[in-house]
Structure prediction request, 339 residues.
Amino acid sequence: MDRRIASAALAAIILPLALAGCSSLTSSGDGGGGGDAADFPGSEPITMIVPFSAGGSSDLMVRGLVPFMEDELGTSIIVENTVGAGGQIGLTSLANATPDGHTIGLTNLPSALAYVNEDRGATYDQDSFEALATVNRFRGIVAASSTGPWTSIEQVVEAAQAAPGTITVGVDGLGGDDHIVVTAFEEAAGVDFTIVPFDDGSEKMTALIGNQIDLSFGSVPTFRAQIETGSVSALAALDAEPIVGLEDVPTTESLGYDAVWESYNVLSAPAGLDAGVRDTLEAAIEAASEAAMQDADFEAQMTNGGYEFGFQDSAWTNEKWTDLDALWRELVPLALAQQ
Prediction:
């Protein structure tokens, strides 16, 4: 395919908590690693590493869930935002932490798959972590400015097929989550877009609203506020099923395009965790998730923010991680070839 990247000049122009509860989930196990399952977690606090900035969608979800986890574990949880290098600094810190259960964190998929791109120099991979649970899924959409020329994804595809490279798509840096999904869509629809990389999401959003780029791909929370104010329109749901609140937006599967946005909030510990400690943490996350969804304020936070909160166990999470790893190994080279 003849894919092209817009010049950098274009992109430039466009531009603890108190101890909570008294219940304690404990079990013993014979797995390897650090930590004593018999008395975990004890009174020692747990650090939750979030490799993203405070106030972002993942951070807000975690901070909403933490009080319920504290109730289940009977100890405090300190949320620590360790940012940088697109999440790699936080993930490296988590992978290198002592596997005793007192350090856990977010290993969101697919952003944790940065290690697939060797140019990123990540020192971890799937085997560096003990996946505990998935607690949320973000659905994705293709968005355009509501004042721009595009009113349907079919219109965009027709124009892109007629004149390859004329449709511009903004992404949060080359080789990131959104760039990979754009690549999947190009393959599915038989089109070539011009990719415009930005340093951050706010620059990309400004460019989209101002019609300096044609499209942007991303999660529902990314565009929720702009859709509600009418400055951005959703052209397609990157999924097989309609999105709650956007039921009138056609899905990519219904249009015949095999391109799905799969983005998950995954809680993990460093590899080498004792099996009993792992089971304690997994059970606590499950119970906390159930309690959270029975809380009106938390449920409203998830609904209004465009989250699809729901617990999936470690077995499900490991299988999903393995599947996405394989898919990313196919798509990342295609995306990077656009440089």
The mean pLDDT is 88.
